[in-house]
User: Fold N-acetylneuraminate-9-phosphate synthase from Gasterosteus aculeatus aculeatus.
Amino acid sequence: MPLEFELCPGRMIGGNHPCFIIAEIGQNHQGDIEIAKKMIKMAKDCGSDCAKFQKSELDHKFNKKALERPYNSVHSWGKTYGDHKRHLEFSHEQYKELQKYADEVDICFTASGMDEMAVEFLHELNIPFFKVGSGDTNNFPYLEKTAKKGRPMIVSSGMQNMETMRQVYKTVKEHNPNFTILQCTSAYPLEAEDVNLRVLTEYQKEFPDIPIGYSGHESGIVISVAAVAMGAKVVERHVTLDKTWKGNDHEASLVPSELAELVRSIRLVERALGNGVKQMLPCEKPCHDKLGKSLVAKVKIPKGTVLTQDMLAVKVAEPMGIDAEDIFKMVGKKVKKDVEEDESILPEVVEGYCKKRKC
Assistant:
């Protein structure tokens, strides 16, 4: 059984607990705190477990030249990349305001710390868990410092290979047992042939003592639902209020109706997964009673006859006789009374017959 742990207050993940669904708002809020609040409320209304943002301390995430480079994209919010990122970055006070609002609407609130100083701020903010974005997955000093904070962690694995992920696992595990790894491919939007859901199975083999999850950037919800069917215990999807808004992530994000359908579909699939024990269920009894087949006499069988298989047939019979599956067990047994042709062979007629579930 994979490790189970509390990710948010009162919310366990792993084992048989429901999949934890993260609505990744990221920076799809357009730099507007009121839009951000609307998206938090939308995430809650759609049934998500968590509303997540991305926090950067820009001077620690980028060097000066990266911030000064011209940014002429249709998605740009400024003349330079630094101007663009500053427009989208909420202040510490605004994060406190968003956290307070999330508490009011009763949804878990967290953010990816996109650099070490952002992690320090989020730790002071007392977020329930850290999310490590794919860009920092192979940043081992960052991973070690984050793991030592002692909060649960979710680690995405876009742009990495299995050997790197083994090292990630060892690095985090040394300091923090409560973490999960998400299969992720860092492309926006993501084509189906690049999703590689089978990595979920490989992660489950490589890291059997932690929950495994999925962070998706594909269009639609089908692939994310399939990930849950394959055992994903966390699903993260980007969300938006309008796919036509400025920003690279919107096209690969889910609008409210899609997010609500994702949550509904995941919960439906979880119900359908069952417990893995194959047995006849109570809901099947009406069909079994109506159409289940049992043993009947193919010919007239006098009292005291030793049964052979050519005396027996399998039919839908009234009343229901001995279960069809026991036909071979009847061979060599005696009947204690006459059985007419085409008559049901009842358990009490056969000497020494005892159905295990009844005896």
